[in-house]
Write a structure and sequence with these properties.
The complex is a heterodimer.
Chain A lengths: L1 H9 L1 H37 L5 E5 L13 H8 L4 E15 L9 E8 L15 E5 L12 E4 L4 E9 L8 E6 H11 L12 E6 L7 H8 L4 E5 H7 L3 H33 L1 H9 L4 H33 L11 H20 L2 H6 L2 H5 L4
Parallel strand pairs in A: 3-7, 4-6
Antiparallel strand pairs in A: 1-8, 1-9, 2-3, 2-5, 2-8, 4-7, 5-6
Helix pairs in contact in A: 1-2, 1-9, 2-7, 2-9, 2-10, 7-10, 9-10
Chain B lengths: L1 H9 L1 H38 L4 E5 L13 H8 L4 E16 L4 E9 L12 E2 L7 E5 L8 E4 L11 E8 L9 E5 H11 L10 E6 L5 H11 L3 E5 H6 L4 H33 L1 H9 L4 H30 L3 E2 L2 E2 L4 H18 L1 H8 L5 H4 L5
Parallel strand pairs in B: 3-8, 5-7
Antiparallel strand pairs in B: 1-9, 1-10, 2-3, 2-6, 2-9, 4-7, 5-8, 6-7, 11-12
Classes of the chains: A alpha+beta, B alpha+beta.
Chain lengths: ~375, ~375
């Protein structure tokens, strides 16, 4: 072990290129993962923040909030299902926001939500008509408490009364107001999408204690199939592109890990070939195959750790340098740590390909001068 | 040449691993290049394929068809701009549909008021609609003769309108969704069926054609100068400026850069180590008369074979993917992209071997007689 580390200290150049390659692979893993996290986080915050068991859409909406319409009659049917403790309406309107201090053509894309059951971080009682809480991503756009945002072509005025964290939706900053505020703004700006009195886009359902299991099926049966009730996780996966993004990115990350394994295998196989004679001598003076292979593994782990640390630093720098609103990249501790662990495991697996070669080294042949 | 091939034959595992690694990298690069192309075509293909040379959004629409609504006052202002030869309403919405009586699915409808302003520029099959209930569909998703029923919203019990696909157009999706181009009357009927509470059906954008001699860009400039609420863009601008397109391109460019760096580094590292390992043999070869040029050529032949082999494997892995659809994204085999990447990776691979080549050139044959031979 000491020998392995000493070799790395004395001849760092030998490991430099492998470290550079693994650093690039680490950065790729972290960048791909961070891109996925950023895309998903900016699309799903509004749903992740819901303190509820179910989201209920109209069955003909294909679980699209924008297309879904729940009438007061259907809402009544849902509320009367055994096990349903609380039901609240939810509506959304995607509109450009005019923020004071920005140019007349420099609008900020926003999504105004109307709610009754408060998502995490919002007060239980929705704010007064004409006011809303803003997602804190809108601070970067110049929004502050008291800012009056004019929404849509009708310039509907909404005053910001506070902020809430991590509630973005479809990559846009959100505003959270009451259902009457939402209905008024939607009907004023989108006549093709207007909703009638009491109509909402979806229902947020909180189950009573111990009533969550099977509740979605009971809700859909109670409405005669007029609804499509989803758990919050299902509703997040049903958001356009979320499941596909996860699948594609995870496949790319998987192949990149395989490449890391192959690169490490290649590098340490070559190093082992180069050191065959040396290993033969070490075996002849009493070193076991286990000790020698442990040295190889240690070197692989050190190379992977150094690469991971550089990759983490580069990812954090990227996170800080990428301007808001461009590449949706976030460097979360969980993603960085998991990428580092994956890389270290890949390095150990990769260098394991050298095990057979180390075991086959014959000390007698080494002493005899036959490498 | 003989030496290069003989060495590769004797060290099959080592060279095989390298070729495999390069092959996987090429596969990833080509796949992601195709995903990028498919994503962008899926996002904005319909905008590229529609016939209006200038599209006027409302500023509030943020350059998205689904977010833009043209109020009557803005529409009048656009039509009155000097240089507008023809203007027509274009609407866009996403609907729940049943195709040929199958399961419910999503479809985007693009409604156009005037042929030549919002309908597809050219068809790949069939003909153009002659009735409000006829449609041109995106070729990847529909066939001529498909019947597409709009699933009505609300609880009115009314049946939704049915569109018959009479023509097809390639690469014409919007929002990565199967897309139908329908006459305005058909679009209005679809919106009212999906949302019975809808009152007025306003256009999403106005398609505009300039008078003879006036450029599309100049007309867009005039319209933007005429109204602060108008956001007029040429067709190509409308496609490239759609939110998300630039971010997709930037993200993929960074990914390509990283993969593009890994390939030459892996190849360069491999051949550098190999050169170190066979230093003594190379010195001996030099001592018995082999010219350094011959040894370098041998090295470069190996690089070409390794990178070339990797490229062949990468293309072989990638090609079957192009017969599949990734969700609604069509993965295309783009010969230009494949050729460009192959050439670029080959050049980078050869460039990366230059360090090893310099080592070979630096070999002193005298070392063989002194017991040296290290590099």
């Amino acid at each position: 072990m000491t020998l392995a580390l000493r070799e790395m200290r004395r001849r760092p150049g030998r490991f430099a290129i492998a470290t550079v390659i693994l650093t690039l692979i680490a950065l790729l893993l972290m960048f791909l993962g961070g891109l996925l996290d950023g895309l998903v986080a900016s699309s799903t915050g509004a749903f992740r923040s819901q303190q509820a068991d179910l989201l209920v859409y109209s069955s003909s909406s294909r679980n699209s909030l924008e297309r879904s319409r729940i009438t007061p009659e259907v809402r009544q049917q849902v509320a009367s299902v055994a096990g349903v403790a609380h039901v609240g309406g939810l509506g959304s309107a995607q509109l450009g926001g005019r923020i004071p201090g920005r140019g007349t053509r420099d609008l900020v894309p926003t999504v105004l939500f109307g709610y009754e059951l408060a998502p995490r971080g919002l007060p239980a009682t929705p704010p007064a008509p004409g006011t809303a809480y803003a997602d804190d991503s809108l601070r970067a756009k110049g929004v502050a408490v008291g800012t009056v945002i004019h929404l849509g072509p009708a310039r509907s005025a909404v005053t910001v009364v506070g902020f809430v964290s991590d509630t973005r939706y479809t990559g846009q900053g959100t505003l959270w107001g009451s259902l009457p505020t939402w209905r008024e703004v939607l009907n004023a700006n989108r006549p093709d999408a207007r909703v009638g009195p009491g109509v909402v886009q979806a229902l947020v359902v909180q189950a009573g204690p111990g009533s969550g299991a099977g509740l979605a099926g009971r809700v859909d049966r109670a409405t005669g199939g007029a609804t499509s009730a989803l758990t919050i996780t299902q509703a997040i996966d049903a958001l356009p592109g979320v499941a596909q993004q996860r699948s594609v990115f995870n496949q790319i990350i998987g192949v990149t890990v395989v490449i890391a394994v192959v690169v490490v295998a290649l590098f340490f196989a070559l190093l082992t070939v180069e050191r065959t004679a040396l290993y033969g001598v070490l075996k002849a003076i009493g070193s076991s195959s286990r000790t020698l292979f442990a040295g190889v593994v240690l070197q692989a782990v050190v190379v992977a750790l150094v690469a991971s640390l550089i990759g983490i630093a580069a990812s954090l720098a990227l996170d800080a340098l990428i301007p808001a609103g461009t590449i949706p990249f976030v460097a979360t501790p969980a993603r960085l740590a998991s990428s580092a662990v994956i890389l270290v495991v890949a390095a150990v697996v990769g260098c394991a390909f050298s095990l057979r070669r180390v075991l086959r080294i014959d000390p007698a042949a080494a002493i005899g001068g036959t490498p | 040449m003989f030496l290069a091939l003989h060495e590769m034959g004797r060290a099959r595992v080592r060279f095989g691993l390298l070729i495999g690694a390069v092959g996987l990298l090429v596969f990833l690069i080509l796949t992601q290049q195709a995903i990028q192309g498919g994503l962008i075509t899926g996002f904005v293909g319909a905008i590229r394929q529609q016939s209006a040379p200038v599209l006027v959004y409302s500023v509030d629409g943020q350059r998205t068809l689904q977010g833009s609504v043209i109020a009557p006052g803005l529409e009048s202002a656009v039509r009155a701009v000097p240089g507008v030869a023809e203007a027509g309403r274009i609407g866009q919405g996403t609907f729940t549909v049943r195709v040929d009586g199958g399961a419910e699915s999503d479809a985007a409808l693009i409604g156009y008021e005037h042929p030549g302003l919002g309908d597809p520029s050219r068809l790949s099959a069939g003909r153009r609609p002659q009735a409000p209930t006829e449609a041109v569909g995106s070729a990847a998703d529909f066939t001529v003769g498909s019947r597409v029923r709009i699933v009505p919203g609300g609880s009115t019990g009314a049946a939704g309108p049915v569109f018959t696909v009479v023509g097809l157009v390639e690469d014409a999706q919007i929002q990565v969704t199967p897309t139908l181009f329908v006459p305005w009357a058909g679009y209005e009927a679809a919106v009212r069926a999906a949302n019975p509470d809808a009152t007025t059906i306003l256009p999403s954008v106005i398609g505009v054609r300039p008078t003879a001699g006036l450029s599309d860009a100049e007309l867009a400039r005039r319209i933007n100068a005429a109204s602060a609420d108008a956001d007029a863009l040429t067709r190509s601008q409308a496609a490239s400026d759609t939110p998300g397109v630039a971010q997709v391109q930037q993200s993929f460019q960074l990914i390509f850069l990283l993969y593009g760096l890994v390939v030459p580094l892996v190849t360069g590292l491999f051949f550098l180590i190999i050169t170190f390992q066979k230093a003594a043999a190379l010195t001996l070869l030099r001592a018995i008369g082999a010219r350094s040029g011959t040894l370098v050529r041998s090295l470069l032949v190996q690089v070409v074979l390794v990178v070339g082999g990797g490229i062949v494997i990468g293309i072989a892995l990638f090609t079957p993917l192009t017969f599949l659809k990734l969700g609604a994204i069509t993965i295309r085999f783009d010969p230009t992209a494949v050729l460009v990447w192959s050439a670029l990776l080959l050049v980078l691979g050869l460039a990366s071997a230059m360090v090893a080549a310099r080592r070979v050139l630096a070999i002193d044959p005298l070392e063989a007689t002194t017991g040296g031979g290290g590099l």
